[in-house]
Amino acid sequence: MKKNRLGKFSWLLGLMFVVLFGAVTSAQAATSDQSLARVKAKGTLVMGTSPNYPPYEFQINQHGKSKIVGMDIELGKQIAKDLGVKLVVKKLSFDSLLPALTTGKVDMILSGMSPTPARRKSVDFTNIYYTEGEAILINRTDQAKYKTKKSLAGQKVAAETGTLQYNLIKQQMPASKLTGMSSAANLILALKTHKVAAVVKGTASATAYAKNDPSLIAINGHFKTSTAQAGNAIALKKGSTSLKLAINRSLAKVKKHGWIQKKYLKTAGKYLKVNTADTSMWHYRDYFVKGVQYTLLIAIVGIIGGSILGMLLALLRFSVIKPVRWLATAYVEFVRGTPLMVQIMFVYFGIGMIVDVSALVAGMIAIVLNSAAYLSEIIRGGIQAVDPGQTEAAESLGMSKKATLQYVVLPQTVKIIWPSLGNQFINLIKDTSMVSIIGVTELIYQLGIVQADTYRGVAPIGVAMVIYFVICWLLTRVLRYYERRLNHTNTPVA
Known about the structure:
It is a multi-pass membrane protein. The chain is of the alpha/beta class.
């Protein structure tokens, strides 16, 4: 009996030591890192979010102005208030949130994110602030056919890639055909057009979609989730101990007063009614106008900057200095051999770690660098297509190499490559859609926002298609006009 008591006492003493040691270690870590101090020093708490996930975060069109609202936004405001700083919301695609956090673009991710084991390897998480189940969205016409997740065996079931729901389908619905998509808007569109049979989402989001779209219905998924990854938490950069402790204190206060259920969800519900009051595309015209403005700005910068850099690269390819020629060739081959989307993310997240640039500037830089590589090859091919006799004739007249290039070769090169340049310029306008991945509010980004806010999938796509067609058609007319003028000019040297 004494041994038993002694054993219990030893076990209790050991447990107390572990708890005390853990508390001391946490306190030491909190004092050693400067994450909280940095936030307070700059006076802002930058919150990364993907505003296409109602009721957590979404945009509304209120009095002609766009505004990001939702349950997570209200929670972010409270956290910032408790820290004594101002909340700054940064819009990104969901796939770009973790890179933005790890590269310091944002201080925290508050976007309905679940603390999965895979995510915990790269970032830290606060305590769970909201716990919900998982629901399955289906078309109302299929209500009798699909009543449980087992009834979806053999059918396509979709979720956002990289989410808890995606993994749950993989693990607990092995008989179904898993389909991953990058945005909530695309998921709903695929469901409504019967490309997939069901979509798995968090209960709050699924309920919001079902309430605002009579063609959809949400059913209980009855998924099993571990305690470690159930619910939603706030993601922080690894080692942000002091900031994590401060946010956890704020979350504890929110939980104690029940503000998420009593205030934040109700506020989000009121904002949802604002969006569904008028879901016409005309009501969202300002969104598309803003998207066109950014698309044209990026395209114009890309065309001008890409043409100048492309010309320089093309001339360097003809340099007699081998290292210069090799360097220009390597640049062109590397850029043409990597996807534009990867280049955009590298400029924003990679170079952005050294020099802090905005998403718009990063997008324009990536577009210029990418288009320059393709334009340089078009220009180089045009220079090579000029009859060598033209250069020889210019030299026989005593013209310098610079004058020959300027007055003989390049004018004929422009005439030869003009149709190819026109095609590249049109492709460049469409390539601007890639910058939406880092949160630039060009046309495709705005399209996704309108889809999420109006619960309409096809109509916003139709509007965007018409806008792109009009822009490209007008550019084609301009290019053809100048092509006719070039064809009527005389050859400089005969």
